[in-house]
Amino acid sequence: MWPYFPELLAVPVPRYTSYPTAAEFQDGFGDADGANALAQVRSSASLYIHIPYCEKICWYCGCNTGAAGRTSRLNAYLTALDAELELVAARLAAQGAQRDLARISFGGGSPNAITPLAFVRLLDRIVTAFGSILPHISVELDPRGFTSHWAGMLGSIGVAQVSFGVQTLADHVQARIGRVQPRATIAQGVEMLRAAAIPSINFDLMYGLPGQTLGDLIETLDGACAMRPERIALFGYAHVPDMFARQRRIDASDLPDAALRFQMAAEGNAFLLAAGYVPVGFDHFALPHDPLAKAATSGQLRRNFQGFTDDSADVLIGVGASAISIFPDILLQNEKNAGRYRMRVTGGQLASARGVRRDADDAIRAKIIEDILCLRASDLSRLDEWQALADALHPFVERGLAQLDGAVLSPTRDSAPYARGMAVLFDRHRRTSARQFSQAV
Amino acid sequence: MSIACDTCVVRNRAICSVLDTDELVALNRIGRTRTISAGQTLMWEGEDSALVANVLDGVLKLSTGTEDGREQIVGIVYPADFIGRPFGARAQQTVTALTEARVCVFARGDFDAFAREHPALEHKLLQRTLTELDRARHWMLLLGRKSAMEKMASFLLEMSERLVQNGCTPDAGPLDRFALPFGRQQIADILGLTIETVSRLLTKLKNDGVIDLPSRREVTILQRDILRHRAG
């Protein structure tokens, strides 16, 4: 079991789905920045499509989403997505770049807030615009409202990976977070996906939820493992009602405290390893035959806005309102407001609105931070100030949470809960910023 | 012109085959048939109108214009195919007849609304759209082949499989003898090759005994396995 050192977990730290983090994004980016970034693309890129709508809005969720509501609103958004896809594909084509896409991921929100027919038409548009044969497709799904038509369609297309937002199987906790989805609903969804021969299913699960006990968590993990998803992501719930107004609906009086959160993460980790899962980064798990587990054990694991991934592409193009694009020297986020987003793209403008540039120093730091979060060895010597940082790592090294051999930082079996705490030492933006992030565990 | 569904040549295989007589009458009211001559691009009324269509007769191509002014073919459709891919002014996607063609067209919004009220049709619509997606991917794969010979061989195999559906007969395997609905220049345009290359490749396949060319438009596949091999 992981040892508990609360003094090393006291400071809130980012999740580092990128470096610099989205908190460093600035306004003042626009169409020209998007066009410049796309003009630099030489290798094959991956595409992320954001569907920021859900049938129902859950209280805990920190995503940029709205209720699906009227069909006309969804249709207007889909028309805008088509327009943006055309713009992006045309920019890539103008550069003579290799247009075939490495991967296409659909996230949200809930992609299954749209109809299967609308989804197929969206894919058809991607095939047409990018000349892609759609080699690797992944889709996030809401188990509520997931139908056999959806499952059959995903199977026909040959989708490689899907992710179910499960969160918790405990009824009383589901009620507390405004996401009621009986266990039978999830089991049926899994059965439909298996019948459609989807090779890899992920469950998103959470600890640290209001009213959740350690027993609830273990019971959820036990129930989840019985359905044998190829992947499990076990996230700590971040209660930041100042940032996400919808979280104000959650009664925060019995949120697990820091010590219990740590115990949940530690017991959860031990449970999943005993159940045959391989650790993937600091909070994901996968069965040994799954590509994500193979990426983790072979040192090929990557981290991006979707969490941990085995996608090796260096460019991720985000399409849709609020979607973030990753380019080697710039991170760009699309206009968040759906109305303004539509205006931009249907008016022939790329939707980039916020972002941050990355210089050579950022690239070195980003690599080190990614290494640490992926729980693999990292060479710190490319940073001029590495010796000062090695000193700062001392509290972790002396407690056996990492090893330092010269300039090479290596993880130990107890590193995972402290990885973000180590990573933040390499974040030059965090030294002065007092901005609040979620607890490290 | 209204649609005479009871005399439709593709009614057994078209998307609307799941409908009963009363439903066909209702569908009749929202659709119309159009005849297009070879080379004519369908010009749809209304800037934002997206249409869907059943192909009754003939062969058509779906294409988009790329930024640098080139044409990218994104699909070829045959009798009984359903053109459900969004096309029209907004989509910058054009549908052009390669041969004289007859199509039965609907405004997409009208057709979708009709489908929502008829679950069997809606399911068929999803299946057809999936088939179109599959064909589009297949097509991209064909165009993405490295050598000109791979493209040409793939194209001939595709023709032999797709032209078999002409008329109302049930599926009966690929054709070993068929008439190409396109001339050499059209094949060259579709495959992104020169007309000289197309002629040279066809001659080579003929000289190697893989195919025969009884007339300007006719093709006979003599050794399908070798043709498959050359398709890569």
Write the layout of secondary structure elements.
The complex is a heterodimer of chains A (441) and B (232).
Chain A: H1 31-39, E1 46-51, E2 53-54, E3 66-67, H2 71-94, E4 104-108, H3 116-130, E5 137-141, H4 148-157, E6 161-167, H5 171-176, H6 183-195, E7 200-207, H7 214-226, E8 231-236, H8 258-274, E9 278-280, E10 284-286, H9 291-297, E11 302-304, E12 307-309, E13 316-319, E14 324-327, E15 330-334, H10 338-346, E16 352-357, H11 360-373, E17 378-379, H12 386-392, H13 394-398, E18 402-405, E19 408-411, H14 419-423
Parallel strand pairs in A: 1-4, 1-13, 2-3, 4-5, 5-6, 6-7, 7-8
Antiparallel strand pairs in A: 8-10, 9-10, 11-12, 14-15, 15-16, 17-19, 18-19
Helix pairs in contact in A: 2-3, 2-10, 4-6, 7-8
Chain B: H1 21-30, E1 31-36, E2 51-57, E3 60-65, E4 71-77, E5 82-87, E6 93-97, E7 101-107, H2 108-117, H3 119-143, H4 148-162, E8 177-179, H5 184-191, H6 195-207, E9 211-212, E10 218-221, H7 224-230
Antiparallel strand pairs in B: 1-7, 2-5, 2-7, 3-4, 3-6, 8-10, 9-10
